[in-house]
Amino acid sequence: MAHMATELILPHSELRNEEISSLLRGIPAAFVDKVENILRPLDLTDERYRQVMDLMRQNLDAGLHPDTHATANVKCFPTYVRSVPDGSENGDFLALDLGGTNFRVLLINLNGQEVTMESKIYIIPQHIMLGSGDQLFDHIADCIFKFMCDHQLHDRRLPLGFTFSFPCRQEGLDRAILTTWTKGFKCAGVEGNDIVELLHAAIDRRGDMKNVRCLAVINDTVGALMSCAHSARNCAVGLILGTGTNACYIEDLHNVKTWDGDYNEPKQVLINTEWGAFGNDGCLDFILTDFDKSIDKHSINPGKQIYEKMISGMYMGEIARLAIERLRKHNLLFEGEGSYHLSTRGRFYTKYVSEIEGDDVDNFTVTKQIFEELELSTHTEQDCRLVRHVCSLVSKRAAYLASAGIACLLNKMGRRDTTVGVDGSLYRFHPFFHDLMMEKITQLLKPNLKFKLMLSHDGSGKGAALVAAVAARLRKEAEDAQQAEELEKEAFLLSKEMENVEVDN
């Protein structure tokens, strides 16, 4: 259901705030004060979120303007995707999906609103994630070959869409330059190069897949948008909340001052914001906690992806771990007793945050199981309540920060009713993320604007196929139009010749 900006979705919010306060009920006030002094930096005010929203707008404008694009953190790359599906897309398509430690190959059949998919997941080993670009793309080509063998596809020429979920500067629908690796990848020789060329080079090195050529390359945000737009035509924003975070949206061409394409209809283009880098220039330092600074310092990309590090699933568990450890060291948790696991970076998984938040507060069964996994032998019900409180604060901040970004995009577009297509494990599996975002976006949205958050079903796979399908449809329409124009020209010349013959006679 869509929600008006003026409509307060408070029943859930009030219940949740009541639940959070009840977690601390019965604990001595002096003890709670000590806890809150440590955790307060995670609990931002409404004014702070509005500041974040305003700063995001400034960063978007900088990314869209040629004078400031080069130094902008939020790059706002045009994707060259101009149209969403119209329902007429039909046929079989291949899709590739690379956005984390897994790589997928998919065979997708489109028949109007009906979509059928077959897929296989292949692991990207750590040594390949940190190896050379040739190693990575050779591995991808090997996976494609195995998939095609399994499905007897070698004799067919199928349009291919590639979801490549890393920051890219697109120079065409089938040309994307990797600007920087994220999410644990560090393959040499890829940054600054066209990933489609690298893919084709790896395919050509094999010599046995000459029918495979990439028609379109997108990222997962575009995939989420396209996947939802297949059934909800008013979908104009794509959002990823998973290992990383990013968003795309539909922008009017006259606002895209960096646009170098044609101005034919439709006069719009999907913009890949790459908003994970928001804050790289220090503009978000006013909300960074010591926990955030520690995560950034020990990351493989210090000073980069600051906004992402406060929101995404790759870091949320570690933020919670650092806060829990700080409380423990102040003898406010586990009687000051820790464990090797709790003191190990990355060992408190983001899935723990979701599981603890979804646990039954009457018995904390799941929370206690997690404590056992972490070898925390000394724990009380109060410890369970406090850890739940930490997870709630970390989750709420992440959801509200993402909401500030989405509200900024919705306000910028000014569309009366917009669907936001959302994908990613954090949004999909966290018990409260959707509700928290509905609450905060509603508060930040301009009056009379409506929105809906819609879970994208396999946007990275289905979305890539849809972009390839739309590209194939638009290409055919252009070819048909050109052919019609040529026939019209031939008919005109023929009529002129006939007129000349009549005059001669």
Describe this structure in words.
The chain is an alpha/beta fold and 505 residues long. It has 2 domains: 3-72 and 278-455, Hexokinase, domain 1, CATH 3.40.367; 78-218 and 458-505, Nucleotidyltransferase, domain 5, CATH 3.30.420. It contains 17 helices and 14 strands. Strands 1-14-13-10-11-12-2 form a 7-stranded mixed β-sheet, with helices on both faces. Strand 10 (235-241) and strand 11 (245-252) form a beta hairpin. Helix 6 (133-150) packs across helix 7, helix 11 (313-329) runs antiparallel to helix 14 (381-413) and helix 12 packs across helix 14. The N and C termini lie far apart (74 Å).
Oligomer: single chain
Tally the helices.
17
SS-based class: alpha/beta
- The backbone outline, from C-alpha atoms, is elongated
CATH class of the largest domain: Alpha Beta
Short description:
With 505 residues, the chain is an alpha/beta fold. The chain has 17 helices and 14 strands. The strands form 3 sheets. A 7-stranded mixed β-sheet has the order 1-14-13-10-11-12-2, sandwiched between helices. It has a 5-stranded mixed β-sheet with strand order 5-4-3-6-9. A two-stranded antiparallel sheet has the order 7-8.
Layout: helices, strands, pairs:
Blueprint: E1 3-4, H1 10-23, H2 29-39, H3 46-64, H4 66-69, E2 77-78, E3 90-98, E4 102-111, E5 114-123, H5 126-129, H6 133-150, E6 159-164, E7 168-172, E8 175-178, H7 195-206, E9 213-218, H8 220-229, E10 235-241, E11 245-252, E12 268-272, H9 290-297, H10 306-311, H11 313-329, H12 350-357, H13 365-373, H14 381-413, E13 417-423, H15 425-429, H16 433-444, E14 450-455, H17 459-504
Parallel strand pairs: 3-6, 6-9, 10-13, 13-14
Antiparallel strand pairs: 1-14, 2-12, 3-4, 4-5, 7-8, 10-11, 11-12
